[in-house]
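Repro:
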Amino acid sequence: MGQSHKGEMLGILGGMGPLASAEFLKTIYESNIVGQREQKSPKVIVYSDPTLPDRTEALLRGDYNTLLEQLIGALYKLCELDVDKIVICCVTSHYLLPKLPYELRDRVISLVDIIFKKILERQQKYLLICSTGTCKLGIFQNHILWQFVQDYIILPDENDQNLIHQMIYYLKSNGKYEKCVPILEQLEIKYNIQKFIAGCTEIHLLNKNLKKIKGEIKKSVFLDPLMIIAEELWSISVLQEYTNLPNTIACFKLLSQILSPDFHEIKLVGKYH
């Protein structure tokens, strides 16, 4: 931080839900204005559209045309305002990224890409916390990089996934986080895990507020892509770093394994999200 921002402008497509995207904007300025003049702070435009259909409900019943149409319309509105890159504050909606026109897809920073990049760097085990839609649609499991990170990601069983989904919608409806802590503690014990993937943007609300709660769970337990973007926004020029990230990493990994004497067969899984 402390660098010039070179005029880049970040667009945020929010409203899914509204509290998470509003908190993300706050996080960006909390992370980038300390010790700086406000004139050096990031330029950000938020387009919040809470009228978008519920992503889990629409996609699981196979009815994505209305959602896709509204998503494309909202993204074009941000592009008309000359944003350089866009963060869609909803992981479940990432299922539709391959269906976007190229000029839109090329501007979107995939939250899943960021999560996978950090997992490859840290090589620690995490429990995936995401909506039932994200889980059943295989947004993580069908990603081109899944084969390289799957040993570090634990998927909850069906009962726990339902509990996590209820927790997410509880956060979405009122933004209160205190009742979520016992659920996380329960999951920590059951899966013998101390770290979680924030695979839903509502978890950003929980991540931001855990430090205010007494107990053993700390803020650092979450791999939170919104927090990563906010903290690294200009220091790593995140507007450029995550462009074509999956293909770059996949090619590097495949090449390194092909050149390894232990290489047998690599099978690419899924499609780019």
